[in-house]
Write a structure and sequence with these properties.
Distance between the termini of chain B: 64 Å
Radius of gyration of chain A: 20 Å
Number of strands of chain B: 0
Largest sheet of chain B: none
Order of helices and strands of chain B: HHHHH
Number of helices of chain A: 4
Largest interface: A-B, 23 and 17 residues
Helix content of chain A: 25-40%
Oligomer: heterodimer
Structural class of chain B: mainly alpha
Helix content of chain B: 25-40%
Largest sheet of chain A: 4 strands, antiparallel
Shape of chain B: elongated
Radius of gyration of chain B: 24 Å
Chain lengths: 148, 117
């Protein structure tokens, strides 16, 4: 009966020894689970391979992926179940973004993409959009001195 | 001039027991410099007190994904540094601790590092 839509963020780690197309299929499967249960995906960021601070299942690195999506509360349990069943996903974390986190997102202190390596993400990241538009247009000023 | 009888020798000086007043000059004093000022150590500690870094930066949310930032609040051994040392305010320390624990779960930070001896 959870009718309230909330914004969730999930970070999960995929086994890094897989090939890139296999990793993409796993990510797509997660996306399908979200979409199938009427969730709306807002962000998808792939961090790529990153070294662990401690070995997990005898491995030292993994492929990190971050999803941000909007849905009702019942999707969370289903997503967790999917993560547990998928044997190539070795860790996951699903959190609901509270209002302070959302406030930080809106004000542009978004660390979602700042933590990511410089990979072009789907939507405009704060790093890429950091250069304001007016700086890009260099006005054509004549070199001659201005006489007042 | 009547002499007050000497009581049993007290390391704090004659006639000074637990209920006596402020430390007297010339007597035994803890943490005192020769000019009678108390606890220069405490002055040094008070000078080191900084304002909360997150309050200064007006941070509303401490993200667990930014492990480089979180690493400053974790000791060499991997332990979370208490806030009396970092100067963080209570509210941000609570958020920081949650963020560090989430980062540890995702192997962005370690739980324990071998002590460098």
């Amino acid at each position: 009966m959870a009718q309230k839509q909330q914004i969730y963020e999930t970070t999960f780690i995929i086994n890094a020894s897989l090939d890139d197309p296999q990793i993409d299929t796993i990510v797509d499967k997660v996306k399908d689970v979200i979409v199938k249960h009427h969730g709306e995906i807002m962000e998808l960021v792939k961090w790529g391979r990153k070294r662990f601070a401690y070995p997990i299942r005898k491995k030292n690195n993994g492929f990190y992926v971050v999803f941000e999506f909007k849905s009702t509360g019942d999707l969370v349990a289903k997503l967790e179940r999917h993560f547990l069943l998928e044997e190539n996903i070795i860790r996951f974390l699903i959190i609901a973004l509270d209002k302070k986190a959302l406030q930080a997102r809106i004000s542009g202190n978004d660390l979602l993409k700042q933590a990511a390596p410089p990979v072009p993400s789907t939507s405009g990241s704060p790093l890429v959009a950091a250069v304001p538009a007016e700086d890009l247009d260099v006005p054509e000023v004549p070199i001659s001195p201005i006489k007042i | 001039m009547a002499m007050t009888p000497q009581r049993s020798s007290n390391p704090r000086g004659p006639n000074r027991g637990p209920h006596s007043g402020p430390p007297q000059r010339g007597g035994y004093q803890r943490n005192a410099s020769p000019n009678g000022q108390r606890s220069t150590n405490r002055q040094q500690q008070q000078r080191k007190k900084r304002t909360c870094r997150f309050c200064d930066a007006k941070d509303v949310y401490i993200d667990y994904k930014n492990e480089k930032r979180l690493q400053r609040f974790v000791s060499e051994q991997g332990k979370i540094i208490p806030r009396r040392i970092t100067g963080t305010c209570a509210r941000h320390q609570r958020q920081l601790v949650i963020a560090i624990k989430r980062a540890r779960h995702l192997a962005l930070l370690s739980f324990v590092n071998d002590a460098v001896s």
